[in-house]
Amino acid sequence: MIRNFSISLMLLSVLVFTSCNTKETNKFKGEVFTTGQGTDEIKVAVVKGTPYEMGYQLGTLLKDDIKVTLTYFLGAAQHEAPQLYSDQMLDKAWETNAPFIDERVKEEMKGIAAGSGIDIKLFQRSHIIPVISTYSCSGVAVWGKGTANGHTLHIRNLDFTMDAKLQDHPVVVIYVPNEGTPHVNVSFAGYIASHTGMNANHLVFGEKGESPRSEMPYDIKGTHFSFLFRQMMYDTKTLDDILNTIKTTPLIKRYFLFFSDGNKATQGGAKVLVSTPDEVKYHIWKDNDPNDNVAPNIFPNVIYQTMNNDTAAVIIKDNLGSFDVDKMIALSKAVADDHNLMDVVYDATTLELWVAYANGEKGRAADQKYVHVSMKEFLKKAGIEL
Asked: How confident is residue 374, by pLDDT bands cut at 50, 70 and 90?
């Protein structure tokens, strides 16, 4: 992810647009739970309704955390690079990129601003920072015969500056939309785009940035993955749905995107290299593909791209066929970067995840406890059956 602070829009059906109400009329007011203990404690928010209503619930429930998180994040970015991240530059970037952002995400942003009482400009500026910045991260998915129990397991390491103190306000948000698929976004208070998540159709989403600083300023007239992930969490049912969306969406910049499917009938994974500045705009690799950029270190039932591919390849080779959650956590730790802000290990088959956030006193995420979150369990606590 970010080390320094440095589509055609897909048409939505009338039914989806009608879910984007601008009034908060839902009887469900959202709930916030905590999991983990002490410095490992994480808030889990469950929200339900239209995009606007879900945003309003988040804004009401987390307004104190949101204000501190986004204000400090924006301030830290502007301190790091005053010209690049000035209010004027960020507002201009938002105006350029906004036509490519899913309307549901924009409606949710309106709701969270209203619920928290915070100027929507703070949300827009904070969310556009990753769009114009550089990235680095890691992702691995293993499934079927590659795991001990036949499940689909997926890691996503988020390598991002710890100086912005996002890790002080971790939030896992479980969305139950009136229209579309329930999904979970592993994030920070007030940040509603997604750098990783999972939907109730057993699909997991992850990313690794590849846009060099030498190509700045980037052409951002297209869809950024962080907004696209939220769109696909709403809409996709299978891995093929995800890949078809990628093929028909004008993307921006350079990324590796990782997707996995925990459904037994359609189980698998895919790695996508997005390289929009080049003539060929994307490459798609599934497991054991001799054309994969990590070849010849390729394996059946595995896709990967990490900050240390040599280390990852050795661990994958030694554990293929016996991967479980503990071994995936060990792999996550082994390939973690020094700027390791957040790590997630998913079991896409059971809709569970284990997440660790960096700690200001204890260091990077990989050195912290990975806290368990069950999507189904927290929905039940909120009185919602999946």
From this structure: very high
Q: Angle at which helices 120-128 and 103-116 pack, to 10 degrees?
A: 130
As a whole number of angstroms, the distance between CA 91 and CA 94 comes to 5
- Yes or no: say if 232 and 205 are a contact pair by the CB < 8 Å rule: yes
167 within 8 A of 358, measured Cβ to Cβ = yes
**Residue 349 to residues 144, 268, 364: CA-CA distances in angstroms?**
10, 11, 28
The pLDDT tens digits for 76-102 are: 999 999 999 999 999 999 999 999 999
List the Cα angle 44/45/48 in 5-degree steps.
145
User: What is the CA angle 256-340-94, rounded to 5?
Assistant: 60
C-beta of residue 229 within 8 angstroms of C-beta of residue 8:
no
∠ Cα 352 355 357 (to 5°):
165
Q: Which residues fall within 8 angstroms of residue 64, CB to CB, at 6 or more apart?
A: none
Report the greatest alpha carbon distance in the chain: 56
Q: Which two tokens stand for residue 113?
A: 């601003």
Average pLDDT over residues 127-135: 90
Cis ω for the linkage preceding 217 (within 30 of 0): yes
Distance, C-alpha 179 to centroid of its chain: 20
Q: Please provide residue 12's backbone torsions phi and psi, each rounded to the nearest 5 degrees.
A: -105, 150
Separation of alpha carbons 312 and 144, rounded Å: 19
pLDDT at position 12 over 60: no
Domains and CATH numbers, the chain: 14-381 (3.60.60.10)
**Measured between alpha carbons, how far is 202 from 141 in angstroms, rounded to an integer?**
13
